[in-house]
Design a protein that fits this description.
By secondary structure, the chain is an alpha/beta fold. About 50% of the residues lie in helices and about 15% in strands.
């Protein structure tokens, strides 16, 4: 395993000493934002985790190594190279490792590497889910299956609002994934705090969430948990505005025959254009908010 997984000195020391660690993904760097905001956001996320008592482990595949903890230079490389770096999910990791190639990890791949490294809490923006029209396309994100099989808690601002949120919740229920609303009974919709869909469980403190995660592990559950954290009110977008932008972006994606891995980056970029950049600002703030909560949960877990 040591031949494949590479821990940064800071992450290795934190894990050895039993200190809290929060995993961070790298797809947001290469595929989620333009340069230099992507690098600035990644570094700000690391700083936010450390400011709240947890070591940050940004995760990626570099030269075939499954890396947990990156240098500033490696983060800058991912940001500058952008979409030329392969977007890596579960299915891609073996080939990237054997070919000694690079990959920016999705939620699913980040969960896998985090679990291999011994990291149990992961902060991201929003998870993938069941895409609109999945009843005919079968387009369902691997993130949902990973949540059902890999013991890592994912803190996010809900599923991306470009998805079918109702079916995403149904899928998670079927696969036995706990969905915990932090200070909310309602599933956040990424850019907005409300979706009209409700979660089964609510927790109002990081310690309460940490207790549930410890209980889950003691019970031997094979999978993880989803902690949904609403975007801060000050950065929440008007639901009508974002819904209109999403509908237009979805229509354009269909007209241009955008498929597979290209769908989400296309939609997010187009929504940014249609909202005059407001969605990017919201995206950055919600990620930082999730990192803050993830660090607090990780700290509570080790107390």
């Amino acid at each position: 395993m040591k031949e494949l997984v590479s821990l940064s000195p800071a992450v290795e020391a934190a894990l050895r000493e039993g200190r809290p660690v929060v995993a961070l993904e790298s797809t947001i760097i290469s595929h989620g934002m333009p340069y230099p905001q992507n690098v600035e956001t990644a570094l700000a996320c690391e700083a936010e985790a450390r400011a709240h008592g947890a070591e940050a482990a940004t995760i990626a595949v570099l030269g075939g190594k499954l890396c947990a903890g990156l240098t500033r230079e490696q983060i800058d490389y991912l940001g500058r190279t952008g979409t030329k770096v392969q977007k890596a999910s579960r299915r891609d990791l073996p080939l990237l490792a054997s070919r000694k190639e690079d990959g920016a990890t999705t939620v699913a791949a980040t969960m896998i590497i985090a679990a291999l490294a011994g990291i149990s809490v992961f902060a991201t923006g929003g998870i993938g889910g069941v895409h609109r029209g999945a009843e005919t396309t079968m387009d369902i994100s691997a993130d949902l299956e990973e949540l059902a099989k890999t013991p890592v808690a994912v803190v996010c601002a809900g599923a991306k609002s470009i998805l079918d949120l109702g079916l995403t919740l149904e899928y998670l229920e079927t696969r036995g994934v706990p969905v915990i609303g932090y200070g909310t009974d309602e599933l956040p919709a990424f850019y907005t705090r409300r979706s009209g869909f409700y979660v089964d469980s609510r927790a109002d403190t990081p310690a309460e969430i940490a207790g549930a995660l410890r209980a889950q592990r003691r019970m031997g559950y094979p999978g993880g948990a989803l902690v949904v954290n609403p975007i801060p009110e000050a950065y929440s977008m008007d639901k009508a505005v974002i819904d209109q932008a999403i509908d237009q972006a979805l229509c354009e994606a269909e007209q241009q025959h955008v498929k597979g891995k290209a769908v989400t980056p296309f939609l997010l970029a187009r929504i940014k254009e249609l909202t005059g950049g407001e969605s990017l600002a919201s995206n950055i703030q919600l990620v930082l908010n999730n990192v803050r909560l993830a660090a607090q949960i990780a700290v509570a877990e080790v107390l």
